[in-house]
Structure formats: structure tokens, C-alpha cells
From TrEMBL:
GO terms for cellular component: cell division site; cell septum; cytosol. GO terms for biological process: division septum assembly; FtsZ-dependent cytokinesis; septin ring assembly. It comes from the Bacteria. Activator of cell division through the inhibition of FtsZ GTPase activity, therefore promoting FtsZ assembly into bundles of protofilaments necessary for the formation of the division Z ring. It is recruited early at mid-cell but it is not essential for cell division. Keywords: Cell cycle, Cell division, Coiled coil, Cytoplasm, Septation. This is Cell division protein ZapA. It holds the Pfam family ZapA. It comes from Isobaculum melis. Homodimer. Interacts with FtsZ.
Length: 101
């Protein structure tokens, strides 16, 4: 069986070159990803016009990975806060029940 048979395919121009993005994500998501990468590459190119496309692409990947890691850390903090609030809520429910008895 072909690994990409039932996947979505989106042809995108990124950094002036054509790429086919293959994945399960909806076409709109793929379009937004390509647009975001192009915007980030354009920003880096504008700030450092002497960089070639490969270096611009690597810096774009580094920035995207950094953003992802920051979001993962933030998500973990929120998960911890939610767990603490759930624990507090359970305690308060038990207190209310104990006071009703």
C-alpha cells in the first residue's frame, strides 16, 4: 500500500520554490503553514539580505522550533495549573459535602 495514498496534497511556493506538502491536515491548514513560512522567511531576508535561501530556511526552522518549545512549556504550566485547580475543586466539594451531613 502506498504511504501517501489517502493524504492531502498541497502545492505551495515557499521561498520562491515549489513544494508539495503531503499530510492529514486540511488544505486550509497547509495553506496557512505555507503562508506563515513565507512571511517568516521574508522577515529574515529583510533583516539579513546577505543570507542565501538555505540559511534563511534554517533560521526560519530554528525560530519555528523555538516558538514550538515555548508553547509546549506554556502548555505544561497550564496543565499543572488545571491539575491543581481540579485538586482544589475536589477538596472543596468534599468540604461542602461534609458540611451538609
Amino acid at each position: 500500500m502506498e504511504p501517501h495514498k489517502n493524504k492531502n496534497r498541497y502545492k505551495a511556493i515557499i521561498g520562491g520554490r515549489e513544494y508539495t506538502i503531503i499530510g492529514d491536515a486540511p488544505m486550509g491548514h497547509m495553506r496557512l503553514v505555507a503562508k506563515s513560512v513565507n512571511q517568516q522567511m521574508a522577515e529574515i531576508s529583510e533583516l539579513s539580505p546577505y543570507l542565501d535561501t538555505t540559511r534563511v530556511a534554517v533560521l526560519t526552522a530554528v525560530n519555528a522550533t523555538s516558538d514550538l518549545l515555548e508553547l509546549q512549556i506554556e502548555t505544561e504550566k497550564y496543565k499543572e495549573k488545571i491539575a491543581a485547580l481540579e485538586k482544589e475543586m475536589l477538596y472543596l466539594k468534599q468540604e461542602i459535602k461534609a458540611n451538609q451531613d
